[in-house]
């Protein structure tokens, strides 16, 4: 009989904390590898419903990978083209926007009785002229090369994840079922007893087979449910952000605000960052409205319209579609954004909530009391 080793709860807790800190240090130091890997896995879950349908049609995995990459390429090209066209348009009209902004600052200085010459003769062109363009260019080029490298890494990981995910999942299932609790071992010992009759051995064998089958079925259903919940969250979150971005773009077109597509894309991306991202996505088009029309009325109209759209989509529709299982505690959301932002920067802030939601999904299906306790802490209710 094996002796059980009892570990002091404080020591166990300290080990877990140290291990968690070590993991985050590794994730931070190797961010060039882990960020593309995580993004690639999120893309895999996003494409999973489509790929599952392709598999039912007996389409080879190589062809599925090519189709996925083509779709990613078309979407990336479309978004990039919109950005480039909008930036070119903004560049052509930049002097007009600068002059309007200069006039707003000067007029506001007079209205508030500010006598500082800096504000009375404010000129954004003068400020920009003092910038060191060589330093800016020196920082811009490495950023572009890092971005291109990350995109190639994402595609590289995506190809192998699509081809190898099922094999990894199967290996985990086999390993988890192999030594499933003390009940299986007890049944095995009963079957091996030499003094049992044939009927008793057959009875224990049937119990063993039934227990093993039930165990495998339970694990299979749990894995499928976890995968389904992750897919549901990722697809629903992206769809909600996308539709919200389209509504924002359409509303700004009707309000005759310049660059509505850009503000719609900002709404799509920034709302992956709760509260902070939503606020930035609201303020930017409102500032553009103020500069463009030079009227506070337009500013407040855009703020009101953006606030209504974001409230409807992210406070009403999103909780209803995604469900209570993924409703995270606001404190957990704040901490996750801060921690992942520290580890992976802006990308970490964008991925913070999806990653935290995935972690919550996985531990919510655990039978461990500690895991259930952590899941309850992360819950909003």
Label this structure with key terms:
381 residues; mainly alpha; 85% helix
Nutshell version of this structure?
This protein has 381 residues and is mainly alpha-helical.
Written overview of the protein:
With 381 residues, this protein is an all-alpha fold. It has 14 helices and no strands. It has helices at 9-29, 31-56, 61-92, 94-111, 117-120, 124-129, 133-178, 181-191, 198-254, 260-270, 276-293, 296-322, 330-364, 369-378. Helices cover 85% and strands 0% of the residues. It has a domain at 7-178. α2 (31-56) crosses α7 (133-178), α2 crosses α9 and α9 packs antiparallel against α10.
Give the uncertain stretches in residue-range form.
Answer: none
**What does the overall shape look like?**
elongated
Helix content: over 70%
Structure class: mainly alpha
Largest sheet: none
Q: Strand-residue fraction? A: under 5%
Number of DSSP strand runs? 0
Q: Mean of the pLDDT scores?
A: 80
N→C terminal distance: 44 Å
| N-to-C order of helices and strands | HHHHHHHHHHHHHH
List the helices and strands and how they pair.
Layout: H1 9-29, H2 31-56, H3 61-92, H4 94-111, H5 117-120, H6 124-129, H7 133-178, H8 181-191, H9 198-254, H10 260-270, H11 276-293, H12 296-322, H13 330-364, H14 369-378
């Amino acid at each position: 009989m094996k002796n059980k080793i009892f570990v002091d709860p404080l020591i166990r807790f300290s080990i877990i904390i140290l291990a968690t800190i070590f993991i985050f240090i590794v994730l931070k130091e190797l961010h060039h590898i882990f960020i593309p890997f995580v993004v690639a896995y999120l893309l895999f879950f996003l494409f999973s419903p489509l790929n599952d349908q392709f598999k039912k049609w007996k389409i080879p995995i190589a062809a599925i990978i090519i189709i996925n990459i083509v779709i990613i390429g078309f979407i990336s090209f479309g978004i990039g083209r919109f950005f480039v066209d909008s930036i070119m348009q903004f560049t052509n009209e930049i002097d007009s926007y600068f002059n309007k902004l200069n006039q707003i600052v000067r007029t506001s200085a007079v209205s508030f009785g500010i006598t500082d010459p800096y504000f009375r003769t404010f000129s954004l062109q003068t400020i920009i002229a003092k910038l060191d363009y060589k330093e800016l260019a020196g920082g811009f080029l490495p950023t572009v090369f890092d971005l291109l490298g990350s995109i190639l890494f994402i595609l590289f990981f995506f190809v192998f994840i699509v081809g190898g995910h099922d094999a990894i999942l199967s290996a985990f299932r086999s390993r988890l079922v192999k030594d499933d609790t003390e009940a299986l071992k007890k049944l095995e010992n009963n079957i091996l007893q030499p003094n049992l009759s044939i009927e008793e051995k057959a009875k224990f064998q049937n119990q063993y087979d039934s227990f093993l089958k039930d165990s495998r079925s339970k694990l299979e259903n749990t894995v499928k449910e976890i995968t389904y919940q992750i897919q549901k969250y990722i697809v629903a979150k992206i769809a909600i952000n996308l539709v919200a971005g389209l509504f924002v773009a359409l509303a700004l077109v009707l309000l005759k605000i310049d660059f509505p597509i850009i503000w719609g894309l900002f709404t799509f991306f920034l709302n992956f960052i709760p509260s902070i991202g939503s606020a930035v996505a609201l303020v930017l088009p409102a500032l553009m409205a103020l500069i463009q029309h030079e009227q506070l009325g337009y500013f407040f109209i855009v703020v009101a319209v953006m606030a209504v759209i974001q409230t409807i989509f992210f406070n009403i529709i999103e909780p209803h579609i995604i469900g209570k299982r993924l409703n995270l505690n606001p404190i957990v959301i704040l901490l996750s954004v801060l921690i992942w932002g520290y580890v992976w920067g802006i990308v970490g802030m964008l991925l913070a909530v999806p990653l935290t939601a995935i972690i919550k999904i996985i531990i919510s299906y655990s039978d461990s009391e500690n895991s259930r306790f952590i899941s309850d802490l992360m819950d909003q209710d």
